[in-house]
Design goal:
Blueprint (H helix, E strand, L loop, with lengths): L5 E8 L4 E7 L5 E8 L6 E6 L4 E5 L9 H15 L4 E9 L10 E2 L2 H8 L9 H14 L4 E6 L9 H4 L5 H6 L8 H14 L1 H4 L2 E7 L3 E7 L2 E5 L20 H9 L5 H10 L2 H6 L5 H6 L3 H24 L5 E5 H6 L1 H8 L11 H5 L13 E4 L4 H14 L1
Parallel strand pairs: 1-6, 6-8, 9-12, 12-13
Antiparallel strand pairs: 1-2, 2-3, 3-4, 4-5, 7-8, 9-10, 10-11
Helix pairs in contact: 1-3, 6-16, 12-14
The structure holds adenosine monophosphate (AMP).
The site of adenosine monophosphate (AMP) has 12 residues, from helix 11 and helix 13.
Length: 394
């Protein structure tokens, strides 16, 4: 990396992986980016430099960091060694939950960290790791602004009917509401649409962010109008290991009949459900697609069924549909899942172009399709960098 220059670092610390990127300022060209994956299992770090050269770091057996703290410390040292004099102006962090208080990126201080920590129970798979990422960066980049960018922010300021539950009103006032997540991904796609498909961007769009975490967002004129995720990152679509929509009566049953406590239920809903729970094989769509087991087929079928059902519900909520966008690891890469979700939606004005879908082109609908169907890779890191730069300039 060139010395004398300045840039931003972004960190997206998840439950089993850490995504990172270094951007030049003010161009926001990516200088380096990658992922430290499978923490605690067969940990591997893969990065790409600006010229697309791949850097891979693997550890000798038993030597890989097996905790988040160890992985973060390693990664930050590894990054610092590669900065080659580049001055980091600010570090941007993906923080899943901003609660009621944070509807835009903030420069984090101790008071804000304490407030964000109170939201950990609402996103136990993510929030504690997000905050650990901030702490780790603070300890190395002394005096450098740490900027939290929230997944909930894109969905804030929804009218009451769209963010309430039909529960006693005092719970709403306390913050028991639908927040929605994956906001950084949706915001990135919204910008992309505005640039490349401005006509559709100003209309009614459903974005399907289908990855290990999965949700859908209905947008009108570039703004979030409804989302499948709600109070926590559990609701809506089934995910890698999260249950998605669930009758609350099931939880009452588990407590009353199986005598399961909060921890046992939480573990089940977050870690042992979704594709993993139904298939009993894996949370990974690639593994399920490659499997001959009936339970793997059942898991995919349920995933597709729920996605189709939520798509219809969101289209009804925004009173029509002009475009659908697929993104996330599954949405971007699974030809079969895209095809199956869109199959039979002719009544909604959807007509898939099989070849374009097979070739994973950007436009995957036929020219006759009333609804434009798109495949657009998301880039949460770039969205974070954009927020960081804007925040540093204000
Ligand atoms: P993400 O959380 O966005 O990184 O997405 C992870 C999910 O994307 C996992 O379920 C992967 O199996 C899935 N995925 C990645 N590549 C493919 C592919 N080529 N075909 C099907 N699923 C894929």
């Amino acid at each position: 990396m060139p010395s004398q220059s300045k840039g931003y670092l972004t960190l997206n610390v998840g439950s089993s992986s850490i995504k990172f990127a270094v951007f030049d300022a003010p161009s926001l060209n990516r200088l380096l980016g990658g992922e430290l994956d499978a923490i605690g299992a067969s940990t591997v770090l893969v990065a790409k430099s600006a010229d697309d050269g791949t850097i891979r770091h693997e550890w000798d057996s038993g030597k890989a960091p097996d905790t988040h703290a160890g992985a973060l410390a390693f990664l930050i040292d590894w990054l610092v060694a590669r900065l080659d004099g580049l001055q980091i102006l600010a570090v941007g962090h993906r923080v899943v939950h901003g609660g009621l208080s944070y509807d835009r990126p903030v420069v984090v201080d101790e008071a804000i960290m304490s407030k964000l920590a109170t939201l950990e129970p609402l996103a136990p798979l993510h929030q504690p790791h997000n905050l650990a990422g901030i702490r780790a960066a603070q300890s190395v980049f002394h005096g450098v602004a740490q900027i939290a960018c929230f997944d909930t922010a894109f969905h804030s300021h929804q009218p009451f009917v769209k963010d309430c539950f039909a529960l006693p009103r005092d719970l709403y006032d306390e913050g028991v509401r639908r927040y929605g997540f994956h906001g950084l991904s949706y915001e990135y796609i919204a910008h992309h649409l505005e640039r490349d498909f401005p006509l559709h961007a100003s209309g009614r769009v459903v974005i399907a962010h289908l990855g290990n975490g999965a949700s859908m967002c209905a947008m009108v004129n570039g703004h979030s109008a409804a989302s499948t995720m709600g109070f926590s990152a559990l609701d809506g679509l089934p995910m890698g290991s999260r249950c998605g929509q669930l009758d609350p009566g099931v939880m009452l049953y588990l407590m009353q009949t199986r005598k399961m406590d909060v921890n046992a239920i939480s573990n089940m809903l977050y870690k042992d459900s979704g594709l993993k729970g139904i298939s009993g094989i894996s949370n990974d769509m690639r593994t399920l697609e490659a499997s001959d087991e009936q339970s793997a087929r059942d898991a995919i079928e349920y995933f597709v069924y729920r996605a189709k059902r939520e798509l219809g519900a969101l289209a009804a909520a925004i009173e029509g549909l002009d475009a659908i966008v697929f993104t996330g690891g599954i949405g971007e890469n699974s030809v079969m899942v895209r095809e199956r979700i869109l199959a039979g939606l002719g009544w909604l004005g959807v007509e898939l172009d099989d070849r374009a879908n097979r070739e994973s082109q950007t436009i995957i609908s036929s020219p006759r399709s009333r609804v434009l169907c798109l495949r657009i890779p998301t880039n949460e890191e770039h969205m974070i960098a954009q927020h960081v730069q804007t925040r540093m300039q204000t």
